[in-house]
Amino acid sequence: MTRIAALFVCFIMVSAASPAQEPAKPQEPSTTSHVLRIDGRDIRYTATAGTLPLKDAGGKVVANMFFVAYAKDGEDRRTRPITFFYNGGPGSASVWLHMGSLSPRRVQMAEEGFQPAPPFTLVDNEDSALDVTDMVFVDAISTGFSRAAAGEEARRFHAVRGDIRAFGEFIRTYVTRFNRWASPKFLAGESYGTMRSAGLAHELQEAHGIELNGIVLISSILDYLTKGYVPGNDVPYAVFLPSFTATAWYHKKLPADLQGLALEKAVEQSRQFAWGEYLSALVKGNRLADPERKAVAQKVARFSGLSPEFVEQANLRVSDPRFRKELLRDRRVMVGRLDGRFTGLDADAAGETQEYDPSNTALQGAYTAMFGDYVRGDLKWESDLKYETSASVRPWSYDEFSNKYLNLLDELRATMARNPFLRVMVANGYYDFATPFGGTEYSMAHLGYEQTYKDRVELKYYEAGHMMYIRPSVLKQLKADVARFIRAASATGRLTTTQ
Could you give the CA distance from residue 331 to residue 348 in angstroms, rounded to a whole number? Predict the structure, then answer.
């Protein structure tokens, strides 16, 4: 992995080596029947847990990908939307979206989505999207129960292109085996999964002739430039400042006039400064005069909750890891990376780096335990394999992106150019430091310069972090936004075919 590529593991850091894994053995899928109540109505559905074989050009099985699918009973498959969900990492299983977002069952978190006390509980999800779309949750190779076949090298899938091709082949196989070619089709990826979605949409279109109705990008990153803390790249400092403002607002660390504003208004003031005066000052480098430097430091401090002295000592360039340690240092706690609402204790309060991410560990135990119980108890899927929630997939190959920033933005643009009906919805968490919303705004402003691209992308914002769905009030908003998006994008396709 190159130095540039090594900077960006979006979700959960994994170990540097890839230990040998026991290959998955072919098993018949398990099918079970269930009932879920949404908006006062009972919805009967069928859950299917199993693996699909991936074959090479010669017909040899090279891997088996694990999935759990939910299909509403009694629907016409030709008109019923289907959405493929996956997480990112690279190296993350789909358990986080599966057990937390829009599936029929979800983990019960503590109040406002904070860490629950064991033993943990799984509950019916009244905010499931099953009323508007069938859903397929898919694990990348080496994650979950997905494995390379016996005798095959897993590392061929531990790569930008290898991973995209595997998901493309999985979707082609799935829509064939389950007769979903005519269905309106959607992708819903989170974190690095949004990078996968950009490349996968292009792969499906070019290699398999599969056109999508829509893509939901959850906590998106499509251009690693926006997080590239390397000398000479000042963009990340502007990208992160509005996220600093949001988290400082949550912890009541802003000046009184900003603190008294609604979150959106405080963030908007920060956004205007970040992309205007602040970025202009950073670009000047050592040509910046002392009076201007001090004035900019005062404003960065104002919008971040940090001291002007700290900002000046950092040469006006405060990285997000340093911010997370510094913001609440006076309280001897640091704030979370995935979700800035969370706080935790480090080994000492004087350090510059976090010992762990409290917003990550808050979910790990509950989601792992509940999925292990659910897949065997409710879905009747038995396997002796370890379910890898965060697998060892390093070194991850960045293929043709070596020695430059990974950027699949243009592949998304090219796919949208060829499919003028493809729509994109982006879900952003204000308190997310893994994939800051400022980076998404920067990327989407560079997606394409014709009006059609801007018209077909909608940005949604939530008072939550990277996994915004863990907060119950936000999950309800997310469900409403996704449901409206899927209905609108599906309707566009039907209207077009009848005209």
Answer: 12
Spacing of C-alpha 16 from chain mean position: 22
Q: Alpha carbon of 25 to those of 64, 66, 166, 169: distances in Å?
A: 8, 11, 18, 19
Q: Could you count the other beta carbons within 10 Å of the beta carbon of residue 423? A: 21
Task: For the full predicted model, state whether its pTM sits above 0.85.
Answer: yes
Give residue for tokens 């990327």.
443
DSSP letter for 385, please. Answer: S
Q: Can you state the percent helix, strand and coil of the chain, rounding each to 5?
A: 40, 20, 40
Report the candidate in 396, 324, 388 with the shortest Cα–Cα distance to residue 356: 324
| Residues forming a β-bridge with 10 | none
d(CA 323, CA 317): 10
Total Cβ atoms within 10 A of residue 297: 22
Look-up of token digits 């510094």: 326
- pLDDT tens, residue order, the chain (499 aa): 343 444 444 544 343 344 567 776 667 899 999 999 999 999 999 999 999 999 998 999 999 999 999 999 999 999 999 999 999 999 999 999 999 999 999 999 999 999 999 999 999 999 999 999 999 999 999 999 999 999 999 999 999 999 999 999 999 999 999 999 999 999 999 999 999 999 999 999 999 999 999 999 999 999 999 999 999 999 999 999 999 999 999 999 999 999 999 999 999 999 999 999 999 999 999 999 999 999 999 999 999 999 999 999 999 999 999 999 999 999 999 999 999 999 999 999 999 999 999 999 999 999 999 999 999 999 999 998 999 999 989 999 998 898 899 999 999 999 999 999 999 999 999 999 999 999 999 999 999 999 999 999 999 999 999 999 999 999 999 999 999 999 999 986 554 433 3
Q: Tokens 């670009």, residue? A: 283
Render the burial of 91-121: b for 16+ CB within 10 Å, e for the rest: bbbbbbbbbbbbbbbbbebeeebebbeeebe
Residue type, 61: V
Residue 161: CB atoms within 10 Å:
16
Q: How many CB atoms lie within 10 A of CB 263?
A: 15
Domains of the chain are 3-225+364-498 (3.40.50.1820), 234-358 (no CATH)
Total Cβ atoms within 10 A of residue 491: 12
Closest residue by Cα to residue 379 from 120, 122, 109, 37: 122
**What burial class does residue 261 get, using C-beta atoms within 10 Å of its C-beta: 0-12 exposed, 13-18 middle, 19+ buried?**
middle
- Residue 313 burial (CB count, 10 A): 11
